[in-house]
């Protein structure tokens, strides 16, 4: 006798319910299905475009064009206007265009002692990384826990 997991039964029930409601029951939508355009539009030098709903935190380059990444970098706009880019994006783009080796963002482990390089009152403060987020670290300082973009910390020691 064939064994079924709870997930298998849920999948069968969900498809049946989807068909009952007038849906196809397919897991993924077709390529012809309507999509919502993202607020961020990225365009390569050759004119290829893509849209995103979130502000880019990493530099992207066109996969349809040839040549080194620095000549295929996407230029991003927010609702058709130049947008303020994330500090991680700015640091990565600067290193890429200057042909300078750049450490991958977010590669420092929890426990690593870092110095905050951000402008403002926290610049120069030192503390350990507590955890890593999607685009930032949580750093313990005397003042409390500070959320700092990857680009605004440097390893100490």
Briefly say what this structure is.
The protein is built from 2 helices and 9 strands, in the order αββββαβββββ. It is of the alpha+beta class.
Topology at a glance:
Layout: H1 6-20, E1 40-43, E2 49-52, E3 75-78, E4 81-82, H2 87-97, E5 113-116, E6 126-132, E7 136-141, E8 144-149, E9 153-155
Antiparallel strand pairs: 1-2, 1-3, 3-4, 5-6, 5-9, 6-7, 7-8
Describe the protein.
- This protein is α+β, with helices and mostly antiparallel strands and 157 residues long.
- The protein has two helices and nine strands, in the order αββββαβββββ.
- It has helices at 6-20, 87-97; strands at 40-43, 49-52, 75-78, 81-82, 113-116, 126-132, 136-141, 144-149, 153-155.
- The strands form two sheets. Strands 8-7-6-5-9 form a five-stranded antiparallel sheet, with no helix packed on it. Strands 2-1-3-4 form a four-stranded antiparallel sheet, with no helix packed on it.
- The N and C termini lie far apart (62 Å).
Radius of gyration: 22 Å
- What's the mean pLDDT score? 87
Number of strands: 9
Q: Into which percent range does the helicity of residues fall?
A: 10-25%
Specify the oligomeric state.
single chain
Coarse morphology: extended
Please trace the helix and strand order, writing H or E for each element. HEEEEHEEEEE
For the largest beta-sheet, the strand count, sense and barrel status come to:
5 strands, antiparallel
Enumerate the strands of the largest sheet in spatial order, edge to edge or round the barrel: 8-7-6-5-9
The total count of helices amounts to 2
Distance between the termini: 62 Å
Task: Name the poorly predicted regions.
Answer: none
Strand content: 25-35%
Class by SSE composition? alpha+beta
